[in-house]
Specification:
The protein has 350 residues and is an alpha+beta fold. It folds into three domains: 94 residues, no CATH class; 56 residues, no CATH class; 183 residues, Glutaredoxin (3-Layer(aba) Sandwich), CATH 3.40.30. β6 and β7 form a beta hairpin. The longest helix is centred in the first third of the chain and has 36 residues. The protein starts with a helix and ends in a 6-residue tail after the last strand.
């Protein structure tokens, strides 16, 4: 293990040696000589051959040369410590390489280099992430590391899959009911409290995406592993949208249009008001005020209010969550399915 650890350390310091050897060529020559020996030893280990003891002894003697003169009795314990440290260096290096490979595969297959907490990956798409609970102890963290590999390998075939919007039985709301016959269906999964979803919606609206496709918008309130909602009032907005769609097709999209595009008298977007300022009761009053503005009478509003709390509405929300998190394995939203592909993250105008 000593020669392998030496190769790893030499490989790491190689960049610095290259810079120093510009001014001191002798340093570079000595480094290359040591690197050649280390590589020869490593290559023999890979082929399951015995490594030359000479190089191992050279490394130890270099590290222990001063100790031998002053403290001869320390040589044996320090030699054992060098062996242990070498094993640790090799293990850490292997773990780091595997983690790097796992992160790259996850980024390609799932859109985020962090499977458990997608929002922690700065290389991934701009999303509102669907995070899993953090491991509570080292044993759980160790088990999660292997579970993440399983999730990645399960998701790899999806990269080559052609998505058919008909195979997903979402509970959705219509954007342009009655005038989309014959258009290609697009599924748009969003959370009313997600700022990325808000920007995507505006971009789609301005670019004519809703005119080009028959868009089925899936209102989805992101939940944590503890079943708490990520954004305040998203749950009640989703309930009212699903309920309003049953009373009048196309009514629900009016709600989300207000939240994503309209501002109050103080110039704040309503999404910010719902996320940071409105209590649940205030959110309900605002939703019902918008419904009233769409010519929904008192009886109609009462009906929507009742439907919003039906067990069937709760079931619809659970069904959508099951499809998003288990069937599609989505790690963040907005997520859209159209033209046979799934697109996760901010939808940008072309």
């Amino acid at each position: 293990m000593v020669c392998i650890a030496a190769f790893i350390i030499l490989a790491i310091i190689g960049v610095f040696v290259a810079a120093i050897s510009i001014f001191k060529p002798k340093v570079g020559k000595n480094y290359l000589k040591a690197m050649k020996k280390a590589w020869g030893c490593l290559w023999k280990k890979v082929r399951l051959q015995k490594c030359e003891t000479g190089f191992k002894d050279d490394v130890k003697n270099t590290l222990l040369s001063r100790v031998i003169v002053k403290h001869p009795k320390w040589v044996k314990p320090l030699s054992a410590i060098i062996e242990v440290v070498s094993v640790v260096i090799v293990i850490i290096t292997i773990w780091a390489l595997l983690t790097a490979i796992k992160s790259l595969l996850a980024l390609w297959a799932l859109g985020s280099c962090n499977v458990t907490k997608p929002s922690a990956c700065s290389l991934g798409a701009e999303v509102c992430s669907i995070d899993e609970s953090e491991p509570k102890n080292p044993a759980e963290a160790f088990g999660r590391w292997f579970t993440e590999w399983g999730e990645i390998f399960e998701a790899i075939p999806d990269k080559f899959k052609t998505y058919n919007t008909d195979e997903y039985n979402f509970n959705y709301v219509n954007v342009n009911p009655g005038i989309d016959a014959g258009k290609t269906v697009a599924i748009d999964i969003f959370d009313p409290g997600c700022s990325v979803c808000m920007v995507s919606y505006r971009n789609q609206k301005e670019a004519g995406f809703f005119d080009e496709y028959d868009v089925h918008m899936v209102p989805f309130a992101i939940q944590t592993a503890e079943d708490e909602y990520k954004f305040a009032n998203s749950e009640i907005v989703v309930r009212y949208m699903l309920a309003a769609e049953q009373v009048r097709s196309g009514l629900a999209v009016k709600i989300i249009d207000h939240i994503f595009t309209a501002k109050n008298h103080d110039g704040l977007y309503y999404q910010e008001m719902f996320n940071n300022y409105y209590t649940r009761e205030e959110a309900i009053l605002k939703l019902e005020a918008w419904l009233e503005a769409e010519n929904i009478d008192t009886d109609g509003i009462k009906q929507i209010r009742e439907i919003a709390y039906y067990p069937e509405t709760t079931d619809k929300m659970s069904e959508n969550r099951q499809i998003v998190e288990k069937q599609l394995r989505v790690k963040g939203i907005p997520s859209m399915i159209y033209d046979g592909k799934m697109h996760t993250g901010l939808w940008e105008k072309k």
